[in-house]
Amino acid sequence: MAEAHQAVAFQFTVTREGIDLQLSHQNSVITGVYPASPSSWLFVVIAILATMYTRSDPSMGLIAKIQEHLPVSQSMSTQCQTLVSAVLFSTMLWLLLIFTMRMCLKKLLSYHRWMFEKHGKMSNTTKVWVALVRIFSGRKPLLYSYQGSLPNLPVPAIKDTVKRHLESVRPLMDDRQYEHMTKLAAEFESSLGNRLQWYLKLKALWSTNYVSDWWEEYVYLRGRGPIMVNSNYFGMDFMYVTPTPIQAARAGNSLHAFFLYRRKLNKEELKPNRIPGTVIPLCSAQCERLFNTTRIPGEETDTVQHWQDSDYIAVYHRGRYFRLRVYQAGRLLSPREIEFQIQRILDDPSPPSKGEAKLGALTAGDRIPWAKARVKYFSSGVNKRSLDCIEKASFFVSLDDDEDGVTADDPASLDSYAKSLLHGKCYDRWFDKSFTIIYFKNGKMGINAEHSWADAPVVSHLWQHALSTDCFQLGYNAEGHCKGEVDSSLPRPQKLNWEIPPECEEQISQSLAVAQALAGDVDLHVFSFQDFGKGKVKKCRVSPDAFIQMALQLAYYRDQRRFCLTYEASMTRLFREGRTETVRSCSNESSAFIRALEGSPKKNLSALRLFHEAAEKHQHLYRLAMTGAGIDRHLFCLYVMSRYLGVESPFLKEVQSEPWRLSTSQSPMHVEMFDLVNHPEYVSCGGGFGPVADDGYGVSYSVLGENILSFNIACKLSCTDTSAHAFGAQIRKALRDLLQLLIPNQTEFKTEEKRPEAKKDL
Question: Where is the Carnitine O-palmitoyltransferase N-terminal domain (predicted)?
Answer without folding.
Answer: 1-41
